[in-house]
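Every protein is a chain of amino acids, and every chain bends into a shape of its own. Below is the pair of lines this work produces for a single protein:
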Amino acid sequence: MTITSDWLDRVTEKAIEPDRPIIDPHHHLWDHPEHRYMLDELLADTRSGHNIVATVFVECMAMYRQDGPESLRSLGETEFVNGVAAQSACGLYGPIRAAAGIVGYVDLRLGKAVDEVLEAHIARAPDRFRGIRHASGFDPSPDVRDSHTNPPDGLLGDAAFRQGFARLAAHGLSFDAWLYHRQIPELTALARAFPETTIILDHFGGPLGIGPYEGKRQEIFEVWKNDITELAKNPNVVAKLGGIAMAVNGFGWHKRETPPGSRELMEATRDYYLHAIDRFGPSRCMFESNFPVDKFSCSYGVLWNSFKRLAEGFSEAEKTDLFFGTANRVYRLGL
């Protein structure tokens, strides 16, 4: 099924706690021939009744330069997003500060040569550039698509990668980790080796539910729980809570005639959220939209309602961390 606004509009909900300030710490922007998600589309989603005060952009290979050294082509994305952020900051589009933080891509396998490239990104967006994501999602099954950066198996343990990774802390940059559930122990080893570097776990560590993992959700969940518990023992790691409504997670909502409502979303995924919050603590967790990728399963308003339903039993201070405070601190937004 092709996801359209008509399909998403089959389920509409009034925003729960509409005044609660929210920082959305994970979304993308792109302009592909088959799908456009630029500032206009982001604003249409964030104006869903929830109080989205700021967002963080995370790399997605958008607007790369078409010439020049390969290692510097991703500068085009940082320049593009910094322009969108400036457009948002002018105030003509409402109070939201879109892309108040920027997470870009640099090939950390450059090793010692990575310093020049990191400095170039920071120079393009000195007020907003906050970190690097070098996705490492790899699975041997042909039914599972590897991360968009086409990583090799074992990237996080690669000597050249680690040499480049070691330079992040010196530049005051964090690292967003996008991988699949079977690779979480590799991230734990990386976190232990570099305790001075802040690592953000994206999308619960990518619990898969397609291909050879289809029909094995409970079995995988038990392994995932143990791996998350070990990862959370590293105080330099924080967790993004979201990004679990993708096709690779195997819930299949995008195949239905009607998208799920917030209560169904919450009930289907609650155990992942509660376990992560229990292990990391609210001060090291932040809700994320992962839009427009998760838009293939639900609308923006429904997604944030599901988070608010899940957080009903938490204290006000804990809710503040989950929806705003953790993202503000980790990405140094100063809001």
